[in-house]
Specification:
This protein is mostly beta strands. It has one domain: Neuraminidase, CATH 2.120.10. It contains one helix and 29 strands. The strands form seven sheets. The chain has a five-stranded antiparallel sheet with strand order 1-2-29-28-27, with no helix packed on it. Strands 3-4-5-6 form a four-stranded antiparallel sheet, with no helix packed on it. It is globular, with a radius of gyration of 19 Å. The N terminus is likely disordered.
């Protein structure tokens, strides 16, 4: 829940230097003593001077799959990174996908056949500037097929799900080259990645889709942001489409701040939890935002969870609440820390942790672990090699992973 895509959403910036080595760092770093490393741990992966995890999910055997990006020295470009770990966060295998330009992975999920589906953006295999990239792998991370979708401008896949019938649905956004306007974009494919339909939504201004969930009726609910028909600010956008992509309804959350939804989960009774951010007017800052709606998209609760922060990840918790993650100081460079917060089903804060060292630490995705606790991924300069390393942290149910 950068590069140009997540730069639009997260305002990330990075200076990339050349080098390469493949060496997961020891979990017991000099800065931190890990409690019960088999249960609650911190891991970093240093493949280059620039590694980042954008999405993490637990897989059937209790291990984890992470998608992100890494710098490739031999091509001087960024590639999609796919990392598979065991239940203790130890690396089982690493795969990279890409060409001679910038290619990044933003969302991954395990598929019903035991493999993985991931989406992101590609400059290497494109009809224009950037295209949506959809990649299917087997259980070992070997590519089975890939497809790119897009026109002659900028297109990006932000989230992908496997539908109940085995199709795939990608949510993202596309830019119309003739006007420069942005649309939220959905692409539905069959199990081999062949397009069934693609549809754009909004588009008279700047409208983005960032996260999607399938509904009980086979349709889809999408969150993101819209500037179409608003008061000049961006508004948090939630909209519903049918199984064939036909538009059904939308809801907008506005106010005196620009707001955006970054990730969406479907909760009990068909309700939705959304994490994102709210930007005060004319201020170079942001607030981590949580919103809960009912099944029809009508808002039940809106909460600022942390000031000077951005929300990037959300997951359901076993007690009906939500776990949220993000990071502080989104417009800074070296001073940001990870935010991990638990709220109940009504959005009331139960606890909040600030995790980080002396340099940059960012969390970009969080998931609830079946055996209890939470797993998150992102990037760090405080732990590991000192480069910008991919970060994985496993906590207990209280967000604790150290003495």
């Amino acid at each position: 829940m950068a590069h140009r895509t997540r730069t639009v959403l997260l305002s990330l910036a990075a200076t990339i230097l050349l080098t390469a080595c493949v060496s997961p760092t020891d979990p017991d770093t000099p800065r931190r003593r890990i409690t019960e490393p088999s249960l609650y741990f911190l891991r970093t992966l240093d493949m280059s001077e620039y590694d980042e995890g954008f999405d993490i999910q637990q897989v059937e055997d209790g291990g984890y799959i992470v998608v992100g990006r890494t710098w490739m020295q031999h091509t001087g470009s960024i590639d999609v990174l796919l990392l598979r770990t065991d239940a203790e966060g130890q690396t089982l295998w690493v795969k990279t996908f890409g060409g001679v330009y910038e290619d990044e992975g933003y969302s991954v999920t395990q598929t019903s056949d035991g493999g993985f589906i991931l989406t992101g953006s590609t400059e290497s295999y494109t009809n224009g500037f950037n295209d949506v990239w959809l990649i299917k792998t087997d259980a070992n991370g070997s590519m089975i097929w890939s497809r790119s979708f897009g026109g002659n401008s900028y297109d990006s896949g932000q989230d992908v799900i496997e539908c109940s019938n085995g199709d795939f649905l990608v949510a993202g956004y596309t830019q119309f080259a003739a006007t420069g306007n942005w649309f939220a974009w959905l692409v539905r494919t069959d199990g081999l990645g062949n397009e069934i339909w693609s549809k754009r939504y909004g588009g008279s201004e700047r409208d983005l889709g960032t996260s999607v969930q399938e509904t009980e009726d086979g349709g889809f609910v999408v969150t993101g942001s819209t500037e179409t028909g608003g008061n000049g600010n961006s508004e948090l956008w939630l909209f519903k489409v049918a199984a064939n992509g036909d538009f059904e309804w939308d809801r907008r959350i506005d106010g005196d701040m620009s707001k955006s939804g970054f990730q969406l989960v479907r909760a009990g009774n068909g309700a939705y939890g959304i994490v994102g951010y709210a930007n005060p007017q004319q201020l170079q800052t942001s607030n981590l935002l949580f919103v809960k709606t009912d099944a029809s998209g009508d808002m039940l609760r809106e909460v600022i969870v942390h000031n000077n922060a951005i929300g990037t990840g959300i997951a359901n918790t076993p007690d009906g609440g939500f776990i949220l993650t993000g990071y502080t100081d989104p417009y800074g460079s070296e001073g940001c820390d990870i935010i991990l917060a638990k709220v109940d089903m009504d959005g009331n804060e139960e606890w909040k942790r600030v995790i980080g060292g002396t340099r940059m630490d960012r969390a970009l995705s969080v998931a609830t672990v079946r055996e209890g606790g939470y797993i998150l991924t992102g990037t760090t300069r405080s732990y590991g090699s000192g480069n910008q390393d991919l970060l994985i942290i496993k906590t207990d149910l209280n967000g604790v992973f150290e003495e």
